[in-house]
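Human: You know discrete backbone vocabularies at least as well as I do. Show me how you would write down a chain together with its backbone fold. No explanation is needed for now; the record alone will do.

Assistant:
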Amino acid sequence: MFSYTLPCGGFKTSTKLTETRISFDPPVYEQRYCLAIQILEDARWVNEIKKVTEFGCAEMRFFQLMRRIETIENILQVDIDHDILKTHLNRTSPLICDYMRQRLTPLKVQVLHGSVADASEELRNTDAVIALELIEHVYEDVLAKIPVNIFGFMQPKIVIFSTPNFDFNTIFTRFSSLLPNGFRHADHKFEWTREEFKSWCLGITEKYTNYMFSLLGVGDPPQGEEAVGHVSQIALFVRKDILGMPLAEPLTIQPLPDSSMSTYKTLRVVDFPFHTDERTPEQKIWNEVENQLYQCTKDENNYDTERYAYKLSLDELTQRLSYLGATRELLAKLLEQHEKTVENDFIFIEDNEETEDNRNWPEPVYEQNEQSEAMQAYVEDENWDE
């Protein structure tokens, strides 16, 4: 095992317990989505996660958040329920905003009908696997095949599992919230205690020694009831090389099992629009220099009353554009080429230069490796736990 802390320090939630009900704000399913997105965006591996496979995607609600991560280039939506996939295929369509503000990287989305237990060519080269509230829906024979397929065949960089915490059910029994089968959902085949889930995870890492795992959870227990743990327990598996550790065994391409004749069926393939920036690195830097100079003229604090001109420090400009690879020497060269005045390490924008709002300034260039806007996406309402 290893200790893992969310890169953004987690998120604020509340749990309210009354005599008649227990409620979670935000709903537990949203908390699971938030946690999974934060893990995917962890700076330690975000740039290495190009292909993501979500097993048990159902209505493809989590996809609406995941698609906004700019570094992801291929998303596989996989589920065993053919009808539910067909019903919600339209959720993988680009929105109007995707055409108005195009991605800077390609994104291919594939909707596949298949089982998490089956290996298939489509699954190869997956970097991250997501399986939220899935394993409790499968029978023992399928459950036994899941680690073989994911950790043996696919060998992704990270894997996220979530499943109900049976220990928490003692609180639900107070409100008759459980079903006749004793579980939270009619289709659940089991619900594990925290020790049972931990034991399952340990069994995986003992067999697949290239992986380590950390246990997390969402849906805080009510105050004074901390002993029951979280509503939903989560395991994050990370391949050791991603943590800067040597692999216990070399990675090798695994053949498809003899019994697997590509049982997956492709229901839809969607390519999202994306913008190809054909500017040279120097052109990108100069376009952003022009934007910074223009922004300088919008702040009166930058006005030099003795020179009757706006001024911007060359050192400050270098720092602002370092993400584009700009150096002080390169900026000085570009400023000279474009006949900009530089004196005593300050760039001067003379008052007689064009500074009107209607000047044709280029669009600013934004750093694309900043944290994505994924968590600003709209998520439709659903039941508190499923």
Notes: The first helix runs from residue 28 to 40.
